[in-house]
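Pasting as-is:
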Amino acid sequence: MSHRTTAATSPERENHVPKLSVVVPMHNVEAFAESTLRSLAANAHPDFEFLLVDDCSTDATPWVIDRWAEKLPGARVIRHETNRGIAQARNSGIDAAEGEFVTFLDGDDWYGPRHLAGMVRAMEDLGCDFARTDHVQATGTERVIRRPPAAVRNAVMDPRDGITPADTETMVDYPFVWAGIYRRHLFDDGGMRFVTELRTAEDRLWIWRLHLTARTYASLGLHGVFYRRGVATSLTQIKDDRQLDFIPAYDALLRDVREDREADRFLLKAVRTYCAMIAFHIGKVNEYEPAAAQRLRRETRAALQRMPEQALEETLKTIDSTRSRLLSRLRDGRKAA
C-alpha cells in the first residue's frame, strides 16, 4: 500500500457529501504548516473537506498535521509511505476527494478568511467547469496582487479562447493551479491527473490540458490565496536537474497539441511558450549545478531541433531580438550563454 488515509469524522459528518474538497500537499514545511492549517480553519464550513497529504515529511510537518487534524472540521490525512512528489500528492488528494468542487493549496501558502466560500458561491452562480482567481504574491512583507490574463471577469468563456493569441500573455501562462476551483466531473474516470514523472512544470502541462479539455471557464475577481514566493524549500528555488523537467513537460504538450482537432490554431502558441521557457532557463544557466547546466544546454538544443520547423521559424522572427539570437545560436550549436 503506497499511502494510507485517516480521518477525524464526527457522526453527523458520516454519509455527508461535501460541496468542496481542498487538496493540500505537504512535504517538510514545518516552518509554514501552522499558518497554512490555521488559514484552513478560518475557512472551515460544514460542506468543506480538507485533504492533508503528507508526502513522507522528515521534519515536524506530520506532528503539526496531526495536531490540526484533530480540531479542523472535515480534515482527512493521507500519508505517503515514501516521498512521491507534488504531482502524486495532488493525485492522491484528487482520488480521495468527494466534493462537487476541488481546489488545491500548497503546504507553504495560505488563505484569507472566507476565500473558499467566495469561490464556491461564484461557481454555483456561473455554472462553469472551472474558474481561475487572482492571487497575492507574498515576498517577505511585500504583497502584490497578480491577476490571470483573462479577457473579461466574472463571465463564462470558452477555455480554448483563453489559449491564444500566440504573441500575448494568456491563461495558459498563468500556471498556478491553486489559484482556481474545478468541478469534480473533470477528474472522473482518471481524467486531469498530474503527470507524476514530472518533478517540476507539472502545473504548466496540467493547465494547458485543462484549457483543451474543459468546455467553460471564468476568471474571478477574488484574491484570497497567498503565494509565498522565494521560499528556500520551494521547487522553484532548486538548481539541479529537477528544473529540467520542463523539457518533457513541453514535449508532452507539443504531442497533445499536434493531435488536437485545432492543432493549427494552438501550435504556434505552444512552440513560442516552449521557446520562452528555454530562453529563461538558459539565461540563468550559470546558476545551475555544473552537471545540470551541461545537460540543460544539450537537451534544450535537441528540443529546438525537433520542434515543428515552421512554427519555430515564425517564433524566432517575432520574439525579441535577444531571445531570438540566444535560441538561434543554441539550436545551431554555437555558444548560447
